[in-house]
Model the fold of this input.
Amino acid sequence: MRTPGNDFELAAGFVFSEGIVRSRDEIAGLTYCLDPSVEPEQRYNIVTVELRNPARTLDLARFERHFTMSSSCGVCGRAQLDSIRSLGVTPIEDDVRIAASVVYALPQRMREAQRIFEKTGGLHAAALFDERGDVVAVREDVGRHNALDKLVGWALLDGRLPLRRCALMVSGRASYEILQKSVMARIPIVCSVSAPSSLAVELAREFNVTLVGFVRDDRANVYTNSDRVD
Done:
């Protein structure tokens, strides 16, 4: 369930954010489905990620989803919520500082870069900015988690990880999963136009992420690590 486009980035970002791969070198190939038993119109809805070292032990049960109950935010029906710490992830050490005036400008700058939203009016976005507030990259999708996976996948495949000295702006809420993906990509500042969940705030505090919510109309709430906002 995604907006078509940047599909390889979406797949790469997902396997990185979930800890299935730790670097670009662990991905041997990304292809659309070539299985002749699959209906032709569905082949471009399936991406195969070939691992360079498939023998590495993976706990596949960790990635199982249950859909009896679902939610539009939070952990999105994950069967088991594993601690990021168990993957060896540490708090982010990044001394980047960003002016409050730059933070206030991020929603409009993201909006101006949303080419598909301009045509449809119905997509979420994840936008990466440098410390001056200049756009580095923007990705769009019907789901904001997918948009962020596309952005992280772009950075992974382009050799840009970890994403130091930058700020992320997302449309919608700042959920736990948005923060989890940001921590994995080592993004020090995460901003959203709406509210964060309490679990997102806890995660940001534990992993030293500056979390900013309700960025709109020259106002914002800084929930954690306010020293990075000047």
Observations:
- Residues 1-230 form a domain with the Cytidine Deaminase; domain 2 fold (CATH 3.40.140.10).
- The chain has one domain: 1-230.
- The longest strand covers residues 124-130.
